[in-house]
Specification:
The chain is an alpha/beta fold. It contains 10 helices and 13 strands. Strands 1, 2, 3, 4, 5, 6, 7 and 13 form an 8-stranded mixed β-sheet that branches. It is globular. The protein binds zinc ion. The site of zinc ion (ZN) has 6 residues, from helix 4.
């Protein structure tokens, strides 16, 4: 195994049941319930541990009708990661379900795209529909962290550490970044919300929450170019992820999946 290969974990901390009609930009003529899982991700090798996104807190999640299963920090404990030991957190984008627990990582630097910071503090936020997926306290916290020299800005595709790169993919939000991670089975891309579900990618049907549909569609193509096969792409909210990938141990079935191992199906 090359020394840069990482173990890659998806950790579920919340869920909800929506409807197919509400999940896709043009709806779905055969409306039916559709589940959504909420994840944070972590990668680890002998050199370093990096957390990707921090999830929502109980209050924010429940105020939006989402189920809060466990604090993402407690979830990380299940795989042996202490939040206070984490030095680097990649924030894929600032939506409430990805950036709601920044303060729970007291020693981390947060990696974010320039464009996301400009987007969440600028003119776009005068539009209610665009700001509705952001929590103002998260944005204010990010500004505080910036003044505290704990934010690292990236302009487009960039390397975070050996074997870990971020890839700017607009569409869902202006400054979303997906993360490519070296693993024993090749590079795995954590799409985050560049693709919420496998079927967004397979059918090229955009998710209903978006900033620019054209760029979201271009993003699907960019994601495909980053990986050797579709089985190396991991969507951001699909309950299928926990079904397709093995759990690290039987007790963590339905909570944690190992994405650096080959999918079961
Ligand atoms: Zn999301």
């Amino acid at each position: 195994m090359p020394s840069t290969a990482y173990e890659i974990f998806a950790l579920k901390y919340g869920e909800r049941v929506g409807s197919r009609g509400g999940m896709f930009v043009y709806g779905d003529p055969h409306d039916a319930p559709m589940a959504m899982d909420y994840f944070v991700w972590a990668i680890r090798n002998s050199e370093r541990t990096i957390v990707i996104d921090v999830g929502y807190g109980r209050e924010e999640g429940e105020s939006r009708g989402r189920t809060f299963l466990r604090s993402p920090v407690e979830g990380l404990n299940l795989i042996g990661i202490e939040a206070s030991d984490v030095m680097d957190v990649i924030i894929t984008h600032m939506h409430y379900d990805h950036a709601g627990n920044l303060a729970l990582f007291p020693n981390a630097r947060f990696h974010i795209q320039d464009e996301e910071m400009a987007y969440v503090t600028g003119r776009a936020m005068t539009h209610k529909v665009l700001r509705s997926s952001y929590a103002i306290d998260d944005v204010v916290e990010l500004v505080r962290l910036t003044h505290g020299e704990r934010v690292v800005f990236h302009a487009g595709d960039d390397e975070i550490a050996p074997g870990v790169t971020v890839h700017h993919i607009s569409g869902h939000t202006r400054g979303l970044q997906s993360v490519r991670v070296a693993s024993a089975r090749g590079p795995v891309v954590l799409a985050s919300d560049a693709a919420h579900y496998y079927e967004n990618l397979e059918n090229e049907t955009p998710f209903a929450v978006l900033e620019n549909m054209y760029l979201m569609l271009e993003g699907f193509r960019k994601l495909r170019k980053l990986v050797p096969s579709a089985a190396h792409l991991v969507p951001g909210h699909d309950p299928e992820v926990l079904k397709r990938y093995p759990a690290p141990s039987p007790e963590l079935e339905g909570i944690v999946a190992r994405l650096d191992l080959a999918p079961k199906s």
